[in-house]
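Q: Given only this backbone (97 positions), what sequence would you predict?
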């Protein structure tokens, strides 16, 4: 895994994660105006699916989800993994820094 990929994963893990009340709510309402970077997903399940597909297609990053699970105990590979961690897959999500 490249240094940039590791930095990206560490930044993602350290980014404030805010649940956005109500299923499929507008996650952008939680992002402060002075945020430099923001990612808003209408559902955690949708984001999980897209992230899994993207990482599978990038050489050297296929083990990134395994690393995330080993480091922080979050399994993004399956819907069941999210639910086992206590995350509602239908909930919207905001990440910002």
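A: Predicted residues:
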């Amino acid at each position: 895994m490249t240094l940039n990929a590791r930095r990206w994963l560490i930044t993602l893990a350290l980014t404030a994660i805010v649940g956005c009340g109500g299923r499929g709510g507008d996650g952008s309402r939680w992002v402060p105006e002075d945020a430099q970077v923001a990612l808003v997903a209408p559902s955690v399940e949708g984001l999980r699916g897209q992230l899994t597909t993207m990482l599978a297609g990038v050489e050297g990053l296929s083990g990134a989800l395994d690393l995330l699970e080993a480091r922080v105990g979050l399994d993004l590979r399956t819907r069941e993994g999210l639910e086992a961690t206590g995350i509602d897959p239908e909930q919207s999500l905001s990440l910002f820094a």
